[in-house]
Specification:
By secondary structure, the protein is an all-alpha fold. The protein is 62% helix and 0% strand. Among the domains are: 1-34; 106-189, no CATH class. The two termini are 16 Å apart. The model has no long low-confidence stretch (mean pLDDT 78). Pfam families: SBF2.
C-alpha cells in the first residue's frame, strides 16, 4: 500500500527532513498497531507443585461439585460472551494495486536499469551453482544475490528460476544447498 499510494508524497518530501521524520513516525505507529492490535494480556504464572507433593498425607479429597452451581456459572459465562465484542478483529481483505511500474520508480536511478540485467544474471548463476552443487562458486555470488533481492525484478527472477528447477525434477537438495536456497527465499520475503 505504501508503494501504491504514497509515491507522490514521498517524492514531495524528499527535501524536507521534518516531513520525512513525521511520515516515518506515522508509518512506525501503523506498523506497530498492525503487529500489536490488542494490548498485552498479563498471564498469571501457576507454580509447579513440588516433587513428592502427591505423597503427603494431609491432602484433602476434591470436593463434590453442586450441579446447580456449576450450571449457574456456565450460564453467567455464556451471557457474558454473548454481550462481549468479538475477541479477534475481522480480517479485512482488500486488493492492493501494484503501484507505479518499475520504470517509474527507477527513472531517478538511470544506471539502475543498466545494472539490472547483470544482477538478474548473478541471481540465475547462483541458483544454478547451488543446484549443480558448486557451492564454492555459489558462496562467492551469494552476497551479491542478497543485495540484488532488494529489487522487484531480482525477486521475480528468483521465483522463476526456482520454479524452473522444480519442474526439471532437480529439486533434491543436501543440507548446504537447502540452506542457501532458504536464505535467498528469506531475503526475498523480507
Amino acid at each position: 500500500q505504501l508503494v501504491a499510494y504514497e509515491v507522490k508524497r514521498m517524492r514531495a518530501e524528499e527535501g524536507n527532513k521534518q516531513k520525512i521524520l513525521r511520515h516515518i513516525k506515522e508509518l512506525a505507529e501503523k506498523l506497530y498497531k498492525n503487529e500489536n492490535p490488542y494490548p498485552a494480556v498479563t498471564m498469571h504464572k501457576v507454580q509447579k507443585p513440588t516433587e513428592g507433593c502427591h505423597l503427603r498425607l494431609h491432602q484433602k479429597p476434591f470436593p463434590r461439585l453442586d450441579e446447580g452451581t456449576v450450571q449457574w456459572i456456565i450460564d453467567q459465562a455464556t451471557a457474558k460472551l454473548q454481550t462481549a465484542p468479538p475477541a479477534v478483529k475481522a480480517e479485512k481483505k482488500c486488493m492492493v494495486p501494484s503501484g507505479p511500474p518499475i520504470a517509474a520508480i527507477l527513472e531517478r536511478n538511470g544506471n539502475a536499469l543498466a545494472n539490472s540485467a547483470r544482477r538478474l544474471e548473478v541471481v540465475r548463476n547462483c541458483i544454478s551453482y547451488v543446484f549443480e552443487n558448486k557451492m564454492l562458486e555459489a558462496k562467492k555470488l551469494f552476497p551479491a544475490v542478497l543485495r540484488a533481492m532488494k529489487g522487484r525484478a531480482a525477486r521475480h527472477c528468483l521465483t522463476q528460476e526456482l520454479n524452473l528447477h522444480v519442474q526439471q525434477n532437480r529439486a533434491v537438495l543436501d543440507h548446504q544447498q537447502f540452506d542457501f536456497i532458504i536464505r535467498m527465499m528469506n531475503c526475498c520475503l523480507q
